[in-house]
């Protein structure tokens, strides 16, 4: 028997003995002590939390999607003086659930279409629970070999799955905003350095950097640009579906061509689902010496499906990419992904070193790829989701979401008085009634009725109800129930 096998078996023997000792009511080798940390301190509250969690998850298909009460009513239930004395952990769990449940949105419902939020695969959710239990600070690599290696593996799988350069750096951030920020910081420092300036001296000592984007640039990019010191993006035009105007981009890059520039492209417009013409836009930007970043919060995952390769043609030629795993991939909140082709540039912009932080020269640490130094191992649920799905499963997930969006659009077109305003190319559907007031009323009616929850918005100077399909559970039955709810709403409001 090898040393590795002997150690593996010894570990499992210990775990079995530990479990048997807990079942007997005491930790191995120790007398029973009600105050001992190994004697049920975690077991009872975690078992209780598990029962509450399963009950919640099993209710999602049928419960109203909307919360029963609003935030102010929740505060009335919670906002009280902190008691002088504490209470048992199980009592805290019960109190938490009783207080919170009326204010919970069923975001995991297959009929939740707001804010582009996915559900959670069982393997990803279970892995997320283990991440909390393991409590590994996955910032430095050396003290956290298990979670760091799992994240590195997940990163390699993502690059392969999305057909992105294998040498790229991958960081697991909180969401698309922080992932965009990480990429823009790497871009900012790289283009400044190319002009002979030292980004470590600050922006005051560097040439001004232009941030360019299409007219439909997402708010997360705008916020990330502000936080990176780049300001609000200069917009260069877009077509009626939100795709960047490539000719307008070329003109903008030609102006002040001596200044460093970052161009942000979009994989999946938040209203139409449209994808920029990456092949043309990347060529124009690179000819001007600009860095190209792709904001692909939900749309980057189209690259995992053979069916959508035309939408992502040229995407892999960019310099950085940002996406959310808690959208299309359906892992629990929170998990954004920042990817930069030049890993050294990513590390130079985001990395940190200190005498007390263990590191190995030349080997990047997890905190070299994201804005946070201390963080949970949010890439582990990504590993679990990808491992449970495999390459074919991810492609089927992406295709299924797009099929559901097409099914919704087809159903809505059959309802008198309603129109689908966008070209449904991926997972977004924008619905409108004849007047803005009627559309706004329909959105309010749907959210109050509770069968579905979809966001109201403004797009192309029209009020719309936006359906963003992101949940793996949005199947033909969920589509049917959604179309039925919209039809009932239109009838109740006299829309025709």
UniProtKB/TrEMBL annotation:
**Could you name the domain of life of the organism this protein comes from?**
Bacteria
Which keywords does UniProt give here? Decarboxylase, Lyase, Pyridoxal phosphate
Region Disordered: start-end pairs: 1-41
Q: Which InterPro entries match?
A: Aromatic_deC, PyrdxlP-dep_de-COase, PyrdxlP-dep_Trfase, PyrdxlP-dep_Trfase_major, PyrdxlP-dep_Trfase_small
Answer whether the UniProt record assigns the keyword Transport to this protein: no
User: What cofactor does its activity depend on?
Assistant: pyridoxal 5'-phosphate
An example of a Pfam family matching this protein is Pyridoxal_deC
Which PANTHER family does its entry note? GROUP II PYRIDOXAL-5-PHOSPHATE DECARBOXYLASE, MIP05841P
Give the record's family classification: Belongs to the group II decarboxylase family.
Q: What is this protein called?
A: Pyridoxal phosphate-dependent decarboxylase family protein
